[in-house]
Amino acid sequence: MIPDAYFSRFETRKYRNENPVQRALIRRFIASLHDLFIEAGPVSSVLEVGVGEGFISGYLSEQFPGIRFTGVELAEADVLRARRHFPRLEVHQGSAYALGALPGGPGAYDLVICAEVLEHLDTPSLALDEMRSLKPKRLLLSVPHEPFFMLSNLARLKNVSRFGNDPEHVNHYSPRSFRRLLEGHLEVLRVTTSYPWILALSAPR
Question: By the number of CB atoms within 10 A of the CB, which of 136, 141, 203, 204 ranks highest?
Fold first, then answer.
């Protein structure tokens, strides 16, 4: 289980929030992601698209020190924070729409993780094509589970004027619509939920 001290490394509000319910949900989400990471099979290299401050890859890199972790993040401030928090992570500044600019090229990463990113993108299909072009063995993706994510926000009086919708979320997914999006690009191996998120393990076709 992720200790409270791990949360304190980060500046992002959702991680700094000491609400025990919110932390419990994040811990359960990470546990579900960890299980899918194991299910993905043995990997030696991982790329996280939208690594942010490194919450996910940082945790996994400490659990699996023999695996090489790389991240790509658009926001320069988050790139610098991720490098500072986790020196073992190789973090690059870049876009989910231009993954071909990363070092190594196709086949360089056994697993691609993309967590809590697709809901922010105007053209998520383009990002999925970019991830597929890297030819990983597996892809592990997650998005908010709607309408439950918005209802959770309303329950804690967040984004009330927007009926709980995060202003940065331009796409909204149920397990069915998320599967439909992924199946246009990938072979979906498993879809599961960890309230209020959806997770999917996929493979390139």
Answer: 141
